[in-house]
Amino acid sequence: MYPRVCHAGQYHYETIQINLQQNGLYSFDTNSTTIELFGYIYEYDFDPLYPNRNLIAQSSLNCSEYRFIMGISLQADRTYILVITTLEPNIQGSFLISIIGPHNITLTKIS
């Protein structure tokens, strides 16, 4: 958990390393049937104590929707971290990720 908004509240989150072999525009479609989601993409690393450092993209606020779609141009020689969190604090649930892009990518869960 981390204080996502103005260093207040406790938000559950999942960190996933994005591994790609080809530069291009990638679209991340993340959805759930039970929780409202919010997403971020970081370049190089993610530090929950400093959630604005290395932030390069974030999803739009979609109140009352259980998904977000985010498109971003990524380069193969960089490390990217996808952070999926909840719109409201102290909520947990499952989600699915679909990715469309010019080449296959792999996702690695970070503990």
**Could you report the average pLDDT, rounded to the nearest whole number?**
90
Shape: globular
Sketch the topology as an H/E string, one letter per element.
EEEEEEEE
Helix content bin: under 10%
- Low-confidence sequence ranges: none
**Quaternary structure type:** single chain
Secondary-structure class: mainly beta
Number of helices: 0
Describe the strand arrangement of the main beta sheet, using strand numbers: 4-3-6-1-8
Strand content: over 45%
Radius of gyration: 13 Å
Distance between the termini: 12 Å
Number of beta-strand segments: 8
Biggest sheet character: 5 strands, antiparallel
Describe the structure.
It is a single chain. The protein is an all-beta fold and 111 residues long. Helix content is 0%, strand content 48%. The chain has no helices and eight strands. It has strands spanning 13-20, 24-31, 37-43, 55-58, 67-74, 80-86, 96-100, 105-110. The strands form two sheets. Strands 4-3-6-1-8 form a five-stranded antiparallel β-sheet, with no helix packed on it. The two termini are 12 Å apart.
Summarize this entry quickly.
With 111 residues, the protein is mainly β. Helices cover 0% and strands 48% of the residues.
